[in-house]
Amino acid sequence: MQDRTYPDPTPNLETEPFWAAAKDEKLLLKYCRTCGKAHYYPRAVCPLCGSTETEWREASGRGEIYSFTQFRRAPVPYVLAYVTLIEGPAMLTNVVDCEFDDLKIGQPVGVTFRDTQAGFKLPVFRPV
Amino acid sequence: MTSNHLAFIAGAFEHPTRKAIDKTVAQLHAESALGALADAGLTKEDVDGYFCAGDAPGLGGMSIAEYLNLNLTHTDSTETGGSSYLIHVGHAVQAIAQGKCKVALITLAGRPRADGATMAQATPRALLPPEESFERPYGPVIPALYAMAAKRHMYEYGTTSEQLAWIKVAASHHAQHNKHAMLRDVVSVEEVINSPIIADPIHRLDCCVVSDGGGAVIVVSPEVARDLGDRCVGIKAHAEAVKHLSGGYFDLTFTGAVVTGPKAFAEAGIVPTDIDYASIYDSFTITVLETVEDLGFCQKGKGGAFVADGNLISGVGKLPFNTDGGGLCNNHPTNRGGMTKVIEAVRQLRGEAHPNVQVNNCGLALVHGTGGAISTRMGSATLILERNDA
């Protein structure tokens, strides 16, 4: 199946480490040192407890599909999905390398990466 | 007048245009404002409060205030997307109760069809929202976001495409009587589920229309309302909430209406079965289905059975909804459907809806708005309105 063209992220002061690690095909999560939980999207301030003591940790890259859809009106149809990571939070993503019609809610998926237009890498998921 | 509300809707106007190639956005705001003022029996000289959202050109409400040459003591440009105008009604009630203004004008207008229907605009880097890079590269188009909520609702509760289709069918039964509606043909469940898939499980006919247009309402103090008479509609309750992705821990099968519904019913001192008519934001059929559950019109997860078999059709079902045809069939001015929801509820409470869809003895109406997107961030708002002599 033909792949879509992936737009670039716009890293900022809070998220540069995420996108730098993605270039090495590592998925980072922000964890809170105070409440111990992971959150998404990554912030300097923990959205779960309000602590400013947050740190980056590499994620397992494993999760399961919470919900998904195939956007068929696009020039190259693609799957938009929320994937719940085993670390807890869910993230918006695409599901690739699959027969779209075979996907199911609850299906296990693992992270993989796709090149963006200007040379970043975007974390996406595929069935495992 | 027997009611003791803090404020009243005295005027309402829906701009008749659906494609405004010959009008500017400011002009559409102004024409809507003048229409609502005339409907109320007021003039722009009476306006001392102005409310608008991001569809108004310029910084907040200042440019339209200048265009109309308003003399203001209060302004508010709260922005929650398509639900903004319900929140403006609520905030106008508060401002009037506090003596900040007496006659509040709320406007909406835009022309996405005339301008080519593009919503994409370059945002300066410093103003990009913090979630932006974690969403945009994945292609989170609006129908796909709503589709994910629908798919999860189907997974958890067994909701079907046929049940969702009934929402469009009901809207089309109403729209056939509205000469301004974009889609006036009555459609069947089969026609909805056989229309092309946009983002599964959402079909083309599960989506609202894209239209130009506008609207305005006038909210006034009890003293002003007393002079204007029984066409004023009492504002009995208002509630608002913001639901978002909560740091990655969320549930797409409900909306912010789980907060605003109970709050609004408690403030009004009534229960869902007291409601005679409901205007429910209908960007997509799934928006209506989750909302009727969240507002308490049926049990959570039972929305599919509730909306089926014509239960939302005026004169047929238990909960007549969107009797102008709603966003699904009538219009969705500048991709913001909250204003027209308020306007049709006002028509119903005045007994001024089309005779074929007018609810008999309509005394209490609910209006619900859902702005933003139900799979990311939404501003939810509920109003409960009451006929003046009810």
From TrEMBL, chain B:
It comes from the Bacteria. Residues 251-386 form the Thiolase C-terminal domain. SUPFAM superfamilies: Thiolase-like. InterPro entries: Thiolase (IPR002155), Thiolase-like (IPR016039), Thiolase_C_2 (IPR055140). This is Thiolase domain-containing protein.
